[in-house]
């Protein structure tokens, strides 16, 4: 299930047929896994005509930013960074002063600054740390709080959030970060910002309380064990990265063999996999629901995501 959006925002997600533009549209308005003082909210800064800009790029692909015309990286994180660059520079019209700058002390890497951005409205320098994440709720034992694990259970929402807020977003404020800013010719105050959109997945048939830190309109789905899944009762397709970003769409009727093969492969390899249930509309086959399938050993053993 997805969060409720305004009519314009929902329309742009159903109108766009180019995956990268649909992913970008989702990024522009996606509810976040952390909402707080340091949150960067693109919708607060986007111009009113950004929807029309994306539609124009779809009609004239050669007019789209060059970053959207080159082959997409295989890593979801690298792909997400490209979309973020387009958001900052081509939709907001801001300046990226530097990107992926490592902070090194005594030959040891202390961290990395994802983006140093010039806010064209305030004129100020901002340090943006970004991540896109997917977490599955796991009930606590004996009255303990529920935990939210990634498909690779080494990743956990509370740990990631703490690191993002107390370590990553503060790197530019440390003496080593200030030294790097001076070397880049950016010897001025810097404001830390974090941007972490994503999805949460509830256990099948068990709605856990959502963490207080997340957006009230966060996109949610459900998860279950690979061994309990059946394709009966819906039209399902496997979602491969980068189609994890935003609602999926396809024009042709899905082939049941595709999801059957994917579930079989993941069962044999003990891999998690993400599925979408589609419904046919006048615009094609559109995503209505998401389900993460995980091995029986999850989260007790870390698995490939």
TrEMBL record:
InterPro entries: DUF1853. It comes from the Bacteria. Pfam families: DUF1853. This is DUF1853 domain-containing protein.
